[in-house]
Hints:
Blueprint: E1 5-10, H1 12-29, E2 34-41, H2 45-52, E3 58-68, E4 79-83, E5 93-101, H3 105-115, E6 121-129, E7 142-146, E8 152-153, E9 169-172, H4 174-177
Parallel strand pairs: 2-3, 2-5, 5-6, 6-7
Antiparallel strand pairs: 1-9, 3-4, 8-9
The chain binds 1-O-pyrophosphono-5-O-phosphono-alpha-D-ribofuranose.
Residues 40-43, 67-68, 75, 98-106, 158 line the site of 1-O-pyrophosphono-5-O-phosphono-alpha-D-ribofuranose.
Amino acid sequence: MHKDIESIVYSETDLSSRIEALGKQISTDYKGKKLIVVGVMKGANIFVADLVRKLDLDVVIDFIVVSSYGASTESTGVIRLLKDLDENINSEHVLIVEDIIDSGLTLEYLVSNFETRHPASIKICTLLNKVERRKVDLEVDYIGFKVPDEFIVGYGIDYAEKYRNLPYVGILKRSVYE
Ligand code: PRP
């Protein structure tokens, strides 16, 4: 385990078996349909890479880059779109994939932005769900795991751009950020 990690919340094995199950569920739900998977950068890239390989569907992968203004540990609700979709999602089925949902403000923004482009459907898939921090009402269709309101890093999630490459999800030691 990395020296800055207090404890592991979900191991590599926990993650891969849950992602396999999510992949099966999504493949069943979209059977016979084309799916545009939209990863929200940067955090979701590792989850997207593992999830799409478990989808038995015609999949198009796209990425969007967003950033919220303000301090890095608190969402302000003001979202900047740094890179838009390459794909035209009009009349397409869209699955937005996130590593973690916290306040829900990023996804609230993305869903309302995408709705103006009239896709056939929009659903949300997140690996981790931090429900205690939710500020807006958000319908999340696929959830990997619930996480406690702790400083979570790893498997795509960073603190000051570090720890994204950890193969597990863990709690960062307080001494690192205090
Ligand atoms: C994280 C995460 C989500 C967002 C969730 O991204 O990947 O996109 O925050 O927070 P919210 O529900 O409060 O909006 P972050 O802004 O840290 O950027 P990153 O993906 O590049 O790490």
